[in-house]
Amino acid sequence: MSDRPLDVVEFLLTAHIYSENRQLDANDLPPRYRRVFWAESDDDEIGGVERPLVATEETTRQATGVDDPWESVSDLMFTQKEEFSGRISLTQPEMALDWLVERADRERFATNPTLAAAVEDRTDLDVTHAEARDSNRPIQADRVWIDSLLESYFDEEEDAEMLDLVSVRAPEEIEMTLDDLVLTADQEGEIEKIVKAIEHRDYLAEIGLREIGKLLFVGPPGTGKTTVSRALAHELGLPFVEVKLSMITSQYLGETAKNVDKTFEVARRLSPCILFIDEFDSVAKTRRSDEHAALKRAVNTLLKCIDEISLIRDDVLLIGATNHPDQLDSAAWRRFDEIVNFPKPDYQMRADILRIVTRRMEIAEFDPEAVAEKTEGLTGSDLRLVLREAVLEALTEERMSLTQEDILDAVADFEERDNLKNMDMIDGDQETLIAGDGGSAGGDGGSTGDDGNSHDHSHGHTHTHD
Asked: What predicted TM-score, i.e. pTM, was given to this entire model?
């Protein structure tokens, strides 16, 4: 049997059971269903899912991806459709549930807490409501909930400057996962520890260990600091709140300190979440500079906010990242309880990264170890750029398959552009460089992604961004 009738009946049953069982809440609905039933609030309150849940052809299509949902279930004796409203409903819900139990696998019930609550007394399925609810992403991780909260607590005009400093991503918007990454043993160990700390927050609070959950990621651009942080948010199902300190310390004046304070308020409101502070070395630069007093106040506010935020108390995991650890002073270092090193990948890591990035590509006689030998000093971000160039070059020849030679040629081209990018052109004729080959080379060099952010939304695998 096609999955389409199963998908539609599951949705109709979920809507019916949820509407009838008042003990269930929005966390008992799968995220794909919550999204279509989300209702914005008319006042300053956060929106939500309101009963009864009415399944129309449109909401069923959105939730299931079935183009013509009624056609998929119209021959079932327990379904009906109201022509005027387009509502699809169940005439005999118990029969529909029996029908679904006979045809669907256990996984369908184990990932839908509303259905699990209705069948957990059935011994043939061995499904519990608690298990299904634990496997379900909480509503606080949904984009619709995040947007509603931000609109509820923060004024679009009054807080415009602060909101410009903050980027909030829902877990569903993060493509990369920890399985897509090549990590060092130390990185894997730190991630495992922090996952355990999140799982056992209550225990840590009981024994008085509250200064846990402030990590500093240290390493060159392109080694995966941002990527790993985002993948961790995806893995844990947590909103990802990103702040770039360079914007705070170089772009905003006036009420800068107030804006910094409000960015931490965003994290507290969205908790549990990950608060990622990029370019943390901007703190040390500002503390040592003679710049505007408002910026110094902002930095002092930042350090105070870091002291006060807590994974155990506030459900906020704080991750700072820096490309320049040598520029951090002791006041910045001591804010973090763990320092995680992100070195450039070694030979074996480069080979593993190449395998992951190319797993969907067709490459004749591909030898990642041979490419790894030729790419010493390149980061994961660099390796992805190399492969991108190889793919684009092949496409100019109307080819969608690559060869080992294509990739080695792309490595050579990348190194040549990288050398041009690093040339000292101060003594050259600037107008000539802009008009001639030098300007072109400079443009190519700037696309290598060394800033780690220019390719932010392009890809979602291994150490490709920072």
From this structure: 0.80
